[in-house]
Amino acid sequence: MSVMQRVVKATTRKGKKVLMKKEPQVIEGPKRALFFQGRKTSEKVRSLLKDLYDIKKPDASKLSRKNDITIFENAKPVEDFCKKHETPLFMMGSHSKKRPDNLVVGRMYNYALLDMIELYVESYEGLKEFAASKITLGTKPCLVFNGPQWDLSDELKQLKSIFIDFFHREYVENVRLQGIEHTISFNATPDGKILLRSYKVVLKKSGCRTPRIELEEIGPRVDFTLRRSKLPEEDLMREACRKPKELKVTKKKNISTDELGSTHGRIHIGKQDIHKLQTRKMKGLKKTAAERKAEKSKVRTVLVVNNDINTMKKKRG
Amino acid sequence: MKRNKNDYILNLTRDNTQLLLNKIWELPTERVEEAIVAKLPPQKTVLPRMKPVPKPRPLTKWQQFAKEKGIQKKKKNKLSWDEQLQKWVPLYGFKRAKAEKEKDWLLEVPGNVDPMEDQFAKKIEAKSEKIAKNELQRLRNIAKSTKS
């Protein structure tokens, strides 16, 4: 027998539930994020982490200790963290002479690193520095990406995908119109900066159905520049983006709806056997009593012969 | 842009948000518990999953064998009539162990074994071995399913 893998078996019902929750699901909930620090962190990056944690809040956890991690050299400790906390997204702050005010944003797939991008926090103004009233916890923001650069380079494309993943919270079918109260805008400038701004949305009457929108900046206000990045391997990304069979929309064939809204279906009927068709009954075509008797006895003899053959076969074999 | 960067971004974002919300307000709406909700179109942005797509659980070794041989599970009655005890005895569970005890108050010593050997202890051990074997097979099946 080969070497057995250790099987984790729950001893309690609650433990079993926890393990079941960790198994792959067809429909996944909101992605959780983990915020933590590297070896050394500047005050700037620390408070930025805190602010982004506040924005992401119900789906986030934050670690407060320092960690001896250099993520671009060895990502294993981060993978372990993310596995422990069940968080596919992470944000790590660090500060060194070579790379001051450093922020790494990345994500995991199946507890292994998928992609990450390192950003330099050039300037930063926190949530506290803006006087405007804050937004409700857990609202889904509008994400606005300004600038044609977002679709030009691979890094920015990936960063856009990461930012959407980070802030979009969850896929929903419906959205409450009055509940839209937060906009995050990401601006890519021609000189290679990425400017993050966050606004509160104020809906005002405009006279027509759609309201007029006013924005109030609530912070944080951050200017990033790109540093190192690790783009995902193509195979892994394709694997990660696979859609479950259950969620794929299959095209329904032979069903159509006309202008009046009634549904038409086209169905397939097998070939008709003309010889067994019941035609009009007539007295002249009826069988006589003698004919019917003869037919019946014929069937019976055939059955008897069949039986005999079967019993002979059984005796032999 | 250079001098008044923040105001420029504010205005740009305001216009873009206005465009986005105009589109949302055009969507079909319905009323759910005193709130007006808009039905969003299906998601276009492809985002990676957190974990792989769940696979169907692989067959256990026995299920695989039964499938190959075409063995089908037969349904058994929970109660069966016991001639010796003259009563209905369940197949398993409540009252089964008691019935077994009543039946086996005496055990025959086979001719070819040591007469001083405890047949009751032997029977208990045989049963516990059977349980252990089943547990091992169960774990092996789980290990096989998690590996692949």
TrEMBL record, chain A:
By sequence similarity, the record places it as follows: Belongs to the RPF2 family.
> What InterPro entries does UniProt report for this protein, alphabetically?
Brix (IPR007109), Rpf2 (IPR039770)
- MF-aspect GO terms: rRNA binding
Q: What is this protein called in UniProt? A: Ribosome production factor 2 homolog
The record's GO CC annotations read:
nucleolus
Among PANTHER family, the record links this protein to: BRIX DOMAIN CONTAINING PROTEIN, RIBOSOME PRODUCTION FACTOR 2 HOMOLOG
Q: Which SMART domains does this one have?
A: Brix (SM00879)
User: Where found, per UniProt?
Assistant: Nucleus, Nucleolus
Organism annotation: Rhamnusium bicolor
Please provide the Gene Ontology terms (biological process) for this protein. maturation of LSU-rRNA from tricistronic rRNA transcript (SSU-rRNA, 5.8S rRNA, LSU-rRNA); ribosomal large subunit assembly
Which ranges carry the Brix domain?
31-235
Q: Which UniProt keywords apply?
A: Nucleus
Automatic annotation (TrEMBL), chain B:
Keyword terms: Nucleus, Ribosome biogenesis
**Which InterPro entries does the UniProt entry name for this protein?**
Ribosom_reg
Q: So which domain of life are we looking at?
A: Eukaryota
Q: Which Pfam family, any one, appears in the UniProt record? A: RRS1
Q: Name one GO biological process term.
A: ribosome biogenesis
Q: What does UniProt give as GO cellular component?
A: nucleus
Subcellular localization is given as: Nucleus
What's the stated role of this polypeptide? Involved in ribosomal large subunit assembly.
Family the UniProt entry places it in: Belongs to the RRS1 family.
Q: What is this protein called?
A: Ribosome biogenesis regulatory protein
Q: Tell me the organism.
A: Rhamnusium bicolor
